[in-house]
Amino acid sequence: KWHVLGDGPMKDKIKEKIKNLRMIDRVILYGNQSNPYSYIKNADMLMLNSFNESYGLVLIDAMLLNVPVFTTETITAKEIVGKYGFVCYNNSEGIYSELKKVLDHPSLLEEKKNLLKHYHFNNMDTIKKIKRYIYGK
Fold first, then answer.
1. Per residue in 35-86, pLDDT tens?
2. What are residue 46's DSSP bridge partners?
């Protein structure tokens, strides 16, 4: 099942597509939630598909909850996700092929979950990277 949090201008179009594909029992839309963490912590994986994402805090949130992440390649995706999730090319073919690989090989997801048991987020690493980008140090 696919559980989708959030809203946007394409909400009605997406609902119609789900209905037309007869996937109402497989894709569940929750809309915006004041506390998404209860959904995230119970997920097998968090997926963030975005054309542009400056710093995907939701990715860090998920990883802190020991949930592997799957995201498209944006400015900081690789740095945030590292070895703890999956980063794919930012197009439909990239999403399809990487997601198919993950779904065809559940052991990949288990591997990421095991790595996340030792995940630790440190703001100092991020600050150092930003200073390097700005000052070249």
1. 999 999 999 999 998 776 667 789 999 999 999 999 999 888 888 899 999 9
2. 69
CA geometry: angle 126, 132, 136, nearest 5 deg? 175
Asked whether the beta carbons of 113 and 70 are under 8 A apart, the reply is no
Give yes or no for a contact between 50 and 56, defined as CB atoms under 8 angstroms apart: yes
Q: Would you say 81 and 97 are in contact if contact means Cβ atoms under 8 Å apart? A: no
* Whole-number Å distance between alpha carbons of 42 and 2: 12
Residues making up the chain, counted from first to last: 137
Number of H helices, E strands in the chain: 7, 5
Choose among 49, 45, 66, 42: nearest CA to 120: 66
Q: What is the pTM for the complete model shown?
A: 0.82
d(CA 63, CA 58): 9
- Residue position matching structure tokens 């690789």: 78
List, as one string, the DSSP characters of 32-72: --S-THHHHHT-S-EEE--S--SS-HHHHHHHHTT--EEEE
Contacts of 6 (CB under 8 A, 6+ apart): 31, 32
